[in-house]
Amino acid sequence: MTITETIHQTPKRPLWLALFCLTLAVCLFVYTGEPNSADGDAMLAAAASLLRTGDPTIGQVLYADMLFPIDQARMGTFDPEGALYSKKGITPTLFLLPLTALAELIPPLGTTTAAMLLNALITAATSVMLFVLCRELGFSARVSFVTGLLYVCTTIALHYSRTLFGEPSAALLMVTSVWGVITYSRSGRWPLLLITGAALGALVGVNSVYAVTTGLLTLLGLTLCWRKRSLRDAVALLLPLGVWAIGLLLYNAVRFGDPLTTGYRFTDGEGFTEPFFTGLAGLLISPYRGLLWYSPIVLLALPGGIMLWRGTRWTGLFIFLIALQAVLFASWWSWSGGVVWGTRFMLPALPLAMLLVAPVIAWAGRSRAVLAAVIFFALVSGVISVAGALADEYSFIAYETRFAYGGDILNSTRYGIDTILFDANFSAAGGALAQLLAGEMPVSAWAQVSPVLIVPPLLLAALAIALLRLSDRRMVAAVGIALVLVTAGQAALARQSPEAQAVAQVETLLDPPGTVAAATDQFGSRLLDVRMRAPVVVVNAPTEPDDRDARPAWEWASRQRDRLWLLTWFGPADPLNWQERDAFERFAYVRETTAANHRAVLFDTRPIDGPSLSGGYRFGSITLEALRVSSHGDGLGVALGWRALELTTSPANWFVHVLDASGQIIAQQDRQPLGGYSPAESWDLDARVTDRAFFPVDPALADSLRIGWVFSATGERLPVRDPQDTPVTDGFIVVPLRG
Q: Where in 459-532 does DSSP place strands (E)?
C-alpha cells in the first residue's frame, strides 16, 4: 500500500460539510468584526461604493491614505476629476458584494461587520477545497479531513481569516485551479475547465502579479487539451479567462482612464526594487516574517514532499507553485506585506504546502513516532496561530519598531531591514504569545464586545460534530440555513460596539440622502456602514485649504449630488474649518443636526439662477442689493446679495421666513451671514456678500418671503427703508413669490 492509498474506508457522511462548519467555527472564534488594514478598507470601500452608487470609488477611506508618509504605501490614486480609486484588484471587491448587499437588506448586520465574515468563509471554503484535492490524489477521507483542519488551525490562515486582505481569496482560487487541472486530466470532463479558467482569471483579479501563475497553469491546461485533441475543452478554459481579462481592462479604464494602468505608483518606488535574496530569506526563514517561524508545521512538507513524489506525478507542480510564490514576491518593495502578521504573501501557497504535509499525516496512522512528530508540530504551530489570531499584532510591531526606528513603523520593512531580519527579538510570533501570557485582552469580538459572541462558534462546532455522526445528506439544506443564521447573528452581535453605535446615530441624521464629506477621522472606516446611495468622502481634519488630498476630494464631492452633507467635529464658524466656509460661500445652507459629538451640516449645491425679485431695501447700514429665488421640486433656493454702506459694530443676524397664502411660516432660517464665517461687523465698506439658503418646502405652498435683520444680543430688528428711502414700520419686508 502506497502513501497516497487510503488507510480507512470512506465514511458515507458529509465530511466536507462537517469540515466547513468546524473550520468556520474556529475562524468565528477569532472574528473581530472590525477592519484592521488599509488594504481591506480600500476593497470594502470599493464594494460599498459599487453597490450603492455604481462607481467603485474609495473616498470613504481617504483619511487613512493621508496618514501614510510614503506615497507607494497608499491604497488609492486620484483620477483627473478628483475621484479616488483603489489600486487593489477587483476580485476581493466582487467577493465582498454579496455580504455588502446582505447588510443593505438587513440593517442590523452592518456593512463592516458583515464584510468581516468574508475571509472566515473563504478560509473555511479553502480547507474544503484542500480536502477535495487530497481526496482526488487518493488520500483517505480522514487524512484529508485532518489536513484541511490543520490548514486553518495551525497556519497563518487563521489570523488572516479575521482580516480583509486579498490573500485568503488567492489561496482559495489557487487550490481550486490546481484541483481543476488535476481532476480534468483524470476525468476529461470539460466543465471542469470552465471552473479552472474562472478561478485563474479571478486569481489575476486579486493581484496582477499572479498573471505569471495563471499563465503557467493555463499553459498546462491547454497542453492537456492538446493531448486530448479537443478544441471545445480549450475554449472552455480560455473563455472565462478572456472574460476576466476584458473585465480587468475595463475596470482599469473606469478607474484611471487607461486599461493598462493599475494605480500602483511605480515611479514613486513601488515595484520590484528590493534585493531578491533578502526578500526570499525574509519570506521563508527569517524570525521577522518567515513562514517557518509563523507556521512551523510546514516543515513536515519536506519529508512529505519526498514521500508524495513517489505516489503522484503532480508533486513537482505543487513544489514549483510554492517556490514560484516566493520568487514572485521576494523582490517586491514591501515583500513583508507591511504592518502585518507573518508573511501574508506566502498564504496563497499554504494549501499546497499542507498538501505536501498530507503524506506525513497518512504515515502517522501506521507509526507512533511519526504520529508524535505530527502532534508536536501541530501543537506548536497551533499555539502560535491562535496567539497570532487573538493578539493585537499592531501593538507588538509598534513596540519593536519604536525600539529600533523611533516609531517609523511603515519604513521598518524598507530601511535597515538587515538589522532585524534574523533577530528573534523582532518576531511577532513570540511577541503575540508573550502578550497573551501577560493577560492582555484578545482582540476577538467576544472579548471586546460581548462574551455572547462565543456562542455562534460553539454552535457551529457542535453542528460539525453532529455531521460527523449523520449519514443523511438531506441534512445539507438544514445545515445551510443554520450557517446563515449563525454567521448573521455573529455579525449582528458584533455591531454592538461603541463605534458602530456612534455611526448608527450619525446615519439617522443624514436624511435626506446626499453626498457625505466628512472632515474627521474619529469614526475610522466605520463610516462605510452609512447606507446612502451617494458618495462618501472622509478626510482628516484640520487640513490646509490647498491640501493635496483634501482639496480635490472636497471639490469632487461637491459636484456629485444636489445635496452635500458636511460631517465635522469643528464647532460653528471655526476658522480652521475651511470646508464649511467654502460651502457657505458657494452653496445654499439647509439645516444642521448633531450626533456622536459631531455636526452634520446640509447644503444644496444647485445654482440659484431664478429672476431677480427685489432689491434696494436697507436694513440699518446693510443693503439688500439682489434677491433671487429658484423653485425646485423639493424646495426653494434663495440667494441674498448684501452690501455694507457703513461700518457696524453690533453683531446681527438676518432672517428669512417662507410664508403660505395665510401668512403662516412654513420654513425659516435665522443666522449670521455665511454661517458666522463672515459676520456683518467684519465687512469692509461696499463689500458684496452673497448668502444662499434652501428651504425644503412644497413650492406650491410658498406664497411670499419675509426678510429682516435683528441684533444678536437684544433680538431688536434693524430699521428698514424701502428703495425710495421710505421707512418700513414692521422692521421687515415681505416679497411676494407669485404674480
A: 515-519
- Indicate whether 424 and 361 sit together in one domain: yes
Q: Which of 335, 331, 362, 301 is nearest to 154 (CA)?
A: 301
Q: Mind listing the pLDDT tens digit for each residue in 433-490?
A: 777 777 777 888 888 888 888 888 888 888 888 777 765 656 666 677 777 777 777 7
Are 505 and 600 in contact, with CB atoms under 8 Å apart?
Answer: no
Q: Are residues 517 and 617 in the same domain?
A: no
On the CB side of 322, how many CA atoms lie within 13 Å of its CA?
19
**627: domain CATH number?**
2.70.50.60
Domain assignment of residue 323, given as a range? 15-34+116-262+271-464
- What is the rounded distance in angstroms from the CA atom of residue 705 to the CA atom of residue 623? 17
Average pLDDT, the chain: 88
Cα–Cα distance for residue pair 640/610, rounded to 1 Å: 12
* Nearest CA among 36, 37, 31, 60 for reference residue 48: 60
CA-nearest of 421, 334, 428 to 70 is 334
The closest alpha carbon to 20, from 117, 133, 126, belongs to 126
Structural domain contains residue 81: no
Same domain, 687 and 574: no
Number of domain units in the chain: 3
Where among 449, 464, 479 does a domain terminate? 464
280-302, pLDDT tens digit by residue? 999 999 988 899 999 999 999 99
Are residue 589 and residue 618 in the same domain, yes or no? no
Q: Looking at 537, 569, 604, which one is the last position of a domain?
A: 604
Bridge-based pairing of strands 612-614 and 588-595 is unpaired
Which amino acid does the sequence have at 713?
A
Whether residue 634 is found in the same domain as residue 700 = yes
| Alpha-carbon gap, residue 704 to 582, rounded angstroms | 29
Residue 257 CA to residue 333 CA, distance in Å, equals: 26
Q: Is residue 336 part of a domain?
A: yes
Instruction: Provide the percentage of residues in the chain whose pLDDT is more than 90.
Output: 58
How many C-beta atoms lie closer than 10 Å to residue 5's C-beta?
11
pLDDT of 703: 93
Cβ-based neighbours of 436, under 8 Å, separated by 6 or more:
387, 390, 391, 442
Q: Are residues 319 and 407 in the same domain?
A: yes
Q: What is the DSSP string of 38-82?
A: HHHHHHHHHHHHHHHHSS-B-GGGHHHHTT-SSGGG-SEEE-TTS
pLDDT for 448 equals 82
Phi, psi of 410 (to 5 degrees): -65, -30
- Looking at the fold, whether 661 and 712 belong to one and the same domain comes out as yes
Q: HEC profile for 202-236?
A: HHHHHCHHHHHHHHHHHHHHHHHHHHHCCHHHHHH
Please return the burial class of 369, using the count of CB atoms within 10 Å of its CB with bins 0-12, 13-18 and 19+: exposed
| Degrees, nearest 5: CA angle 487-489-491 | 70
Q: Is the dihedral of CA 409, 411, 415, 420 positive or negative?
A: positive
How large is the average pLDDT for residues 38-52?
A: 94
Q: Quick check: helix, strand or coil at residue 500?
A: helix
Average pLDDT of 118-126? 97
- Segment 181-202 mean pLDDT: 93
pLDDT tens profile 510-558: 888 999 999 998 888 888 988 888 999 999 999 999 999 999 999 999 9
Residues 448 and 505 in one domain: no
Q: Are 279 and 325 in contact (CB under 8 A)?
A: no
673 within a domain of the structure (yes/no): yes
C-alpha–C-alpha distance, residues 36 and 674, integer Å:
39
Asked if residue 252 is part of any domain, the answer here is yes
